[in-house]
Amino acid sequence: MNSINKIKSLPQWVFRAFYLSLYDLITVNFAYFIVLWLHYNLRYTTIPLKYLQAYLSFVPIYSLFTLSVFYFLKLYKSIWKYVSLSEMNRILLATIVTAIFHGIGITVLCTRMPISYYLMGPLFQFMFTVSVRFAYRFINLVRRRKQRNENAKYNSLIIGAGSAGQIIIKELENSSVAQSVPKCVIDDDPNKWDRMLKNIPIIGGREKIIEAVQKFDITQIIFTIPSASAKDKREILNICKETDCKLLTLPGVYQLLNEEVFLQHLKPVAVEDLLGREPIKADLGQIKKQIQGKVVLITGGGGSIGSELCRQIATYDPKQLIVFDIYENNAYSIEQELKRNYPNLNLKVLIGSVRDQKRVDDIFSSYRPDIVYHAAAHKHVPLMEG
């Protein structure tokens, strides 16, 4: 009774690994048998007896060796729901090792087999081993996409068939919480037109935006060209403004450079995105010289402008970066991001208002900042004046 309870208490993955090992046990041997069957015109009775006897005699030895190799390469510990190239490489390595052992072992211990047996056996084994594992992921992927499509709130048009666009599409397709389904892609590069980006059609340039919105019933447009000039970005977003779609964009090119393109980095299009100008070419070396080794205070550090200042300044090795903001949610968000991306940064996050003179005086007397970036401000000025 205790033994039965112990078995029942085992993790579910252990049972899956057991069933998978049984499948491997059958298929790795069947792979070589099917080669003999094919070699002799799909007729079992025409297979020479010496080959059948050699095959059957070697089955126990090969089974034990193969399962040992698979276990050593941790093929039974992977989460096959997320199987990737790493597992594929390990399966390939396992196939090569076991094929060499099978070829030498059956020849030395039993008899020399037909050439096709040595060449095609490993190929069939690899196909059988890979197929069941990737089929599990494929079925889960199809099921998840179907569920996501049924629950989707937005049909999305992606602007930009570059690296950022590809990452956003991948996240939209794989995320369990995303409310958008990518329907089509717009890109101004004619070489990409009428092609596919992760199975999503690239239908043309910016002149196709209005047509695409109508054709694909688009309700959300995502601008994913963080390296675009202010002029191009302004022109494209102004076209998008002619639709009733929700507009989202990436804040800047730094995410692409740092490989930090995620759905949570998307933000609504702001007025400055539509009115923008060409970027000022700053002397980054001079800026770094001014900031490096200094105590830098940023007021309104959790806001849209302040948080971007934090990201940029963190790269210039300040002695200490002080983030001062009135809203704890904004401050917490930029604090977590900076800690994650700059673990060696001397960071201090403070809560308070720049209108509180005593609080500001205390901060200056305690931390004595060398440089202050004053980004604390109301965004909606007419409203706040009223």
SS-based structural class?
alpha/beta
Q: Order of helices and strands, N to C?
A: HHHHHEHEEEHEHEHEHHEHEHEHEH
Termini separation: 77 Å
Helical coverage, percent range: 40-55%
Per DSSP, what share of the residues sits in E-state strands of 2 or more residues?
5-15%
Taking all residues together, what is the mean pLDDT? 83
Q: Domains counted in the coordinates: how many?
A: 3
Q: Count every helix, treating DSSP H or I runs of 4 or more residues as helices.
A: 15
| Main β-sheet, spatial strand arrangement | 3-4-2-1-5-6-7
Poorly predicted runs of 5 or more residues? 252-262
Instruction: Label the overall shape.
Output: elongated
The major sheet is characterized as: 7 strands, mixed
How many E-type strands? 11
Provide the gyration radius in Å: 30 Å
